[in-house]
UniProtKB/TrEMBL annotation:
Name this protein carries in UniProt: DNA-3-methyladenine glycosylase 1-like
Positions of the HhH-GPD domain: 108-268
Gene3D superfamilies associated with the record: 1.10.1670.40, Hypothetical protein, domain 2 (1.10.340.30)
Keywords: DNA damage, DNA repair
InterPro entries: Alkylbase_DNA_Glycosylase/TA (IPR051912), DNA_glycosylase (IPR011257), HhH-GPD_domain (IPR003265)
Organism of origin: Camelina sativa
PANTHER family: DNA-3-METHYLADENINE GLYCOSYLASE (PTHR43003), HHH-GPD DOMAIN-CONTAINING PROTEIN (PTHR43003:SF8)
Entry annotated with the keyword Glycoprotein: no
Length: 272
């Protein structure tokens, strides 16, 4: 995707977007497997009754789950439905990396252009026996900050990677725990890691865990998409985002994906 000022980049295997290739402006400047959900109640911003999302809510790992999401979004939001109809290729959420590897990759990709980030990530992977399958907390801890700086990882990011590995070693985090956590628990627990903010967690939940109902209210691309979709004068803030996108539940992740597509299409049209 060509949102290089707001999103670092986008992988496009088919029409999919990769979390590791996105960079949030708010985090840069310093502001602010199939997955099942634990039963929980989510209170709507409006005065409508409580919506209950149960453990049967599907992840977005399968085509049938994505198809179900599209049917819901088309029926619940006429404007979004029209946008969906204009895009022939549905979203694909196909990352199968374990959580620890996905989080390490997210840290490495932060604030970097895609090409530079991939180069450093490939060097990072080369440090481990077995490639990506060898990227484990204990093997990462064994690498010094000097080792990481030699391949282009900044000293600050090296400290973030070591803190992530330490959180796994101490039991604060594990792949098993992450897969069982609710969205709220993930935000609370993962933001304990140095260098991981709410935006990074949102991207991780959408593109690595394939959670269906994540609304990244701080993402500039999604905010711009909502602004254009609904003809707003100004960029919506978090509360307005929640209110406007409430009708997308329980598939706000897919709605957000189309906001990135909307902005991409607008930028492509303007560049011609």
């Amino acid at each position: 995707m060509s949102l290089r000022k707001t999103l670092t980049a986008v992988n496009k295997p088919g029409s999919s977007i990769s979390a590791g290739n996105l960079t949030n402006v708010s985090e840069v400047t310093g502001s602010s497997s199939k997955i099942t959900f634990r039963p929980r109640k989510l209170r709507k911003v409006s005065s409508d009754p409580i919506i209950v999302i149960t453990a049967s809510s599907p992840s977005l790992s399968t085509k049938s789950a994505v198809d179900l999401a599209l049917l819901h979004l088309k029926s619940s939001d006429e404007l979004l439905g029209a946008l969906i109809t204009t895009h022939n290729d549905p979203p694909v959420f196909e990352s199968a990396n374990p959580p620890f590897l996905s989080l390490a990759r997210s840290i490495i990709y932060q604030q970097l252009a895609t090409k530079a980030a991939k180069c450093i990530y490939d060097r990072f992977i080369s440090l481990f026996d077995g490639g990506e399958s060898g990227v484990l907390p204990e093997s990462l801890i064994s690498l010094s900050a000097v080792d990481l700086r030699k391949i282009g990882v900044s000293g600050r990011k090296a400290s973030y990677l070591h803190d992530l590995a330490d959180k796994y070693k101490s039991g604060v985090l594990s792949d098993e725990l992450i897969l069982k956590m609710s969205d709220e628990e993930l935000i609370d627990r993962l933001t304990l890691v140095k260098g991981i903010g709410v935006w990074t967690v949102h991207m991780f939940m959408i593109f690595s865990l394939h959670r269906p109902d994540v609304l990244p209210v701080g993402d500039l691309g999604v905010r711009k998409g909502v602004k254009d979709l609904y003809g707003l004068r100004d960029l919506p803030g978090p509360l307005q985002m929640q209110q406007l996108c409430e009708k997308w539940r329980p598939y706000r992740s897919v709605g957000s994906w189309y906001m990135w597509r909307l902005i991409e299409a607008r930028k492509t049209k303007l560049s011609k």
